[in-house]
Write a structure and sequence with these properties.
Number of helices: 8
Distance between the termini: 5 Å
Radius of gyration: 17 Å
Shape: globular
Largest sheet: 6 strands, mixed
Number of strands: 6
Length: 204
């Protein structure tokens, strides 16, 4: 990895976490620290949406959305701590990370019903003012529910930015999983590890 390359990694946090990250980015920008000048932006879940917003130059538009009292919200039927408890239980029972990720990705609904795919797609779309891949390199992670392996979507993957962001934030047991080309994808429970950046950036 070249010493003059910079990467920004943004992890999950739901809608509230996404708003917080956007606020931090905006505050830093006001202090003449531009996180958008990174050579690579890697994101998962809410961080995928935040990263896409930053890379597409839509920060002000996205911030305006959160400042509105009528911005899109999802009423989930399950508290987040139910997912955390289920995921921690699986991780304690299955020390193999890939197997644990696979089982977490395939969690049964944790409530009486899931948020509808249509409602969630609308929310994700509302949080992505620009829905085309930017020129800046953006990598969005998700988990292949069949293998438990993390996958990466980018401009060269042939997957639409909206679909990639939706898959990355499909929290198992709460939100419906996202099907792309016949495969189902879920949120990455472990987030993005900084140690993996060398794989994204390559030797140059």
């Amino acid at each position: 990895m070249s010493t003059n390359q910079k990467a920004l990694v943004s992890s999950g946090g739901g809608t509230a976490g996404g708003a917080w990250m956007l606020g931090i980015i905006d505050a830093l920008h006001s202090a003449d620290v531009d996180l958008g000048d990174a050579d690579l932006i890697v994101g998962t879940s809410a961080g995928a949406r935040v990263g896409a917003v930053l890379a597409t130059g839509a920060l002000d538009h996205a911030l305006g959305l959160y400042r509105r009292s009528d911005h899109p919200r999802l009423e989930t039927r399950v508290p987040l701590d139910a997912f955390v408890a289920a995921a921690m239980r699986i991780m304690s029972e299955f020390p193999d990370r890939q197997e644990a990720a696979k089982r977490i990705a395939n969690l049964e609904p944790l409530g009486s019903t899931l948020v509808t795919a249509e409602d969630r797609q609308c929310m994700v779309a509302a949080q992505l003012p620009v829905q085309t891949w930017p020129e800046k390199r953006v990598a969005i992670t998700a988990v292949d529910t069949q293998s438990g392996l993390r996958v990466v979507f980018d401009a060269n993957s042939g997957v639409a930015l909206l679909d990639a962001a939706s898959a990355s934030g499909a929290l198992p047991g709460i939100f419906p999983l996202v099907t792309i080309d016949g495969k189902r994808y879920a949120d990455s429970p472990a987030g993005v590890r900084i140690a993996e950046l060398s794989w994204f950036l390559g030797p140059d």
